[in-house]
Design goal:
Distance between the termini: 35 Å
GO molecular function, one term: monoacylglycerol lipase activity
InterPro entries: AB_hydrolase_1 (IPR000073), AB_hydrolase_fold (IPR029058), AB_hydrolase_sf (IPR050266)
Strand content: 5-15%
CATH topology of the domain at 7-116 and 185-252: Rossmann fold
Shape: globular
Number of helices: 11
Number of strands: 7
Domain AB hydrolase-1: 16-242
Structural class: alpha/beta
GO biological process, one term: acylglycerol catabolic process
Organism: Streptomyces violarus
Helix content: 40-55%
Largest sheet: 7 strands, mixed
CATH architecture of the domain at 7-116 and 185-252: 3-Layer(aba) Sandwich
Radius of gyration: 17 Å
CATH superfamily of the domain at 7-116 and 185-252: Alpha/Beta hydrolase fold, catalytic domain
């Protein structure tokens, strides 16, 4: 069932969809002024921000929610009118899955590895048990890196820890066996040939990740952001906007 996501649309130019990470919302994109170059559609994923808290919570459902929203806004999704999409963290997976399913002019995945496998049972216990909040805070604390402590405090203040939503989005990692997860991952990364794809990392995805990604998405470009943090778009928003605009101009015909 598709639902109508909370959203805002600002700027002029080609359509760009901005997808936030888990526990966050569309306001996290506020410092990132992509509307200088694009007509930016910022969405709240289901269970996040002002969007309905309607299960199931998952990546495939989010792809359909976003596509339904774009269609409901009367956007032309054909050819050069199809959207660019930028996603951070969980949003990077959703952006990739969207491009595998629907016409897309280009993707920027911000600090989200697509190489996944089933998580250990103790993590499932932490996610679904009484230690959920402490577990999530510990995970994010390990990812802030060089991010300004003032920004870290602001993120922590605005982050929403909803156990049902979080565990729903993590279901593939918590419940699926390796073969099922691998098949889903292959579908999610099966983009049409030639779709521009920038994998922009603030943390280390692993020394051989660029080769792994190129095997899955031959058009992909993997780069390291100047700041070592899971939030490179917030650490250096002006640099990030410039990099996204240049990438889409060079490879995605953004104009």
């Amino acid at each position: 069932m598709n639902l109508t996501l909370a959203h805002d649309l600002n700027g002029t130019g080609p359509l760009l969809v901005a997808v936030h990470g888990i526990t966050e919302n569309r306001s996290f994109w506020a410092p990132v002024c992509l509307q200088q170059h694009f007509r930016v559609l910022r969405v709240d994923l289901r269970g996040h921000g002002d969007s309905p808290r309607t299960s199931p919570f998952g990546i495939d459902e989010s792809v359909e929610d976003i596509h339904h929203l774009i269609e409901s806004l009367g956007e032309d999704l054909t050819g050069d009118q199809s959207p660019f999409i930028v996603g951070h963290s969980l949003g990077g997976v959703i952006a990739t899955a969207y491009a595998a399913r629907y016409p897309t002019r280009g993707v920027v995945n911000v600090d989200q590895s697509l190489r996944v496998g089933p998580l250990p049972a103790e993590i499932a216990i932490a996610v679904r048990g009484e230690g959920f909040a402490d577990f999530v805070r510990t995970v994010f604390a390990s990812l802030y890196g060089e991010l300004d402590p003032v920004l870290v405090a602001d993120i922590e203040r605005r982050r929403t820890l909803d156990q049902d939503v979080f565990s729903g989005f993590w279901t593939p990692l918590l419940d699926w066996d390796a073969d099922t997860l691998a098949a889903w991952s292959r579908r999610t990364t099966s983009l049409p040939p030639g779709v521009p794809y920038l994998s922009l990392h603030g943390t280390d995805p692993g020394g051989d990740y660029a080769d792994w990604l190129a095997d899955r998405i031959p058009a992909a470009v993997a780069e390291q952001a100047p700041k070592r943090t899971h939030y490179p778009h917030l650490a250096q928003p002006e640099w990030f906007v410039s990099r996204v605009h240049k990438f889409f101009t060079d490879f995605g015909s953004s104009g």
